[in-house]
Each structure stands twice: as C-alpha cells, then as structure tokens.
Design brief:
Blueprint: H1 4-18, E1 24-30, H2 38-58, H3 63-80, H4 84-90, H5 93-110, E2 121-127, E3 132-137, H6 139-142, H7 151-162, H8 166-184, E4 200-201
Parallel strand pairs: 1-2, 1-4
Antiparallel strand pairs: 2-3
Length: about 200
C-alpha cells in the first residue's frame, strides 16, 4: 500500500505539474473498488448445492445428514473465502473492471472535480486490488482532447500497478497527463490551485 512518503511524492508531482497548465489533477488510490462481500457467499452456496449429487453417488445418507453436511460446508467455505486475498481472486475480471469503473465515476463526483471554473479537472483513479486504473477528464477537457489521447497513459499506469509499482506509475501518469494538458490548457495569468494536490487514499 502507499505510505506517507509515497503520498508526498505524488502530491509534489501534482503541484509541480499544475504550475505548467490551467488543468487540475486529482489522484485517488483505493485499496479496492468494492468489498465484494457477497462473492464468498455465492461460491459457498454453489459448492454446497452441488455437493449432494457427489455425496449421494458415494454414500447412503439420510436427508437430515445431507442437510447438516451442506450447512457445514456452506458455513466453512463462506468463512474461509471471505478473507481478502481469496475473495478478490474469486471475483470475475469483468465484474472487477465494471465495479472499478463505477467507483472512478463516483470519485469524480465526490471530489468535486467538475467545479473548476473552466471545467479542466482530471481524475486519475487507481484501484490496487483490481489492478485497475482510469483517467476521467471533465467536460472542458473532453471537448478539446480526444479520449484516445489518454489511452497510452492508462495502459502504462495499469501495467505499473500490475507490477506492484503503483507509485512510480502514478507519478509518471501525473507528469504525462500534465504535459498533455499544458499543450491545450496553458497556465492562466493567476493560475489558481482550485483542487487539493494531496492524494486521496480510500
């Protein structure tokens, strides 16, 4: 996970980058986009429901005994699979990406990024458990810069996250994002710092 020194390093990169552009960059790093607390229950229920066919093919069990075994298996699996390391491994990739995408949009709103005066805010969102990254630009930026421009930034950041180099990847993403913004949104005369530079850790 990101420590205080890492947070300071990213915040400094944001502050230095924003001196060169009228754009505002917000970084949110989440340990996970979701808790996926229902996932262990679903897998445990599936296993418990599939178990009787196997047991009845091997043993001669009463309905009561079979029910007790099902209940025991369900409870044991639901508990064992609820630990984070196992829980996240059981979540299908598309589900993790969908939830992380939704979380990025939620954070864009929660961090009030759309309230800059020229709508030139950008969110860089990283979900560590999902190995996912997304960049969400405000409307003022989307009108000028095509979404495809940001794709290499996110591809590189995602690769760094997968390599457990999230801090390095985030700093690079901030700097690259700032360079792109500087081309289209050079600093204004007053160039106020409209959004906090600190990293939001969830």
């Amino acid at each position: 996970m990101i420590n205080k020194a890492d947070e300071d390093r990213i915040a400094l990169a944001i502050a230095e980058t924003e001196k060169k552009t009228a754009g505002e960059i917000v970084v949110v790093v989440a340990r996970a986009a979701s808790g996926y607390h229902l996932v262990p229950i679903v897998w445990a229920a599936f296993a418990a429901l599939a178990l009787p066919a196997l047991l009845l093919a091997i043993f001669n069990l009463t309905a009561h005994r079979l029910y007790e075994i099902e209940l025991l298996v369900f409870g044991a699996l639901a508990f064992a699979l609820s630990f984070g390391r196992y829980r996240f491994q059981l979540v299908p990739g598309p589900m993790k990406r969908h939830r992380a995408h939704e979380a990025a949009r939620e954070q864009f709103t929660a961090r009030r990024i759309s309230q800059t005066r020229a709508h030139t805010g950008v969110l860089i969102y990283v979900a560590l458990a999902e190995r996912y990254a997304e960049l969400v630009p405000d409307s003022g930026i989307s009108e000028v810069i095509d979404d495809a421009t940001w794709k290499p930034v996110i591809v590189e950041l995602t690769e760094k996250v997968k390599q457990d180099r999230a801090v390095e990847g985030t700093v690079a993403a901030v700097e690259t994002c700032g360079a792109i913004l500087a081309e289209h949104f050079p600093p204004r005369g007053d160039n106020p710092d409209e959004l906090p530079n600190r990293v939001v850790i969830l």
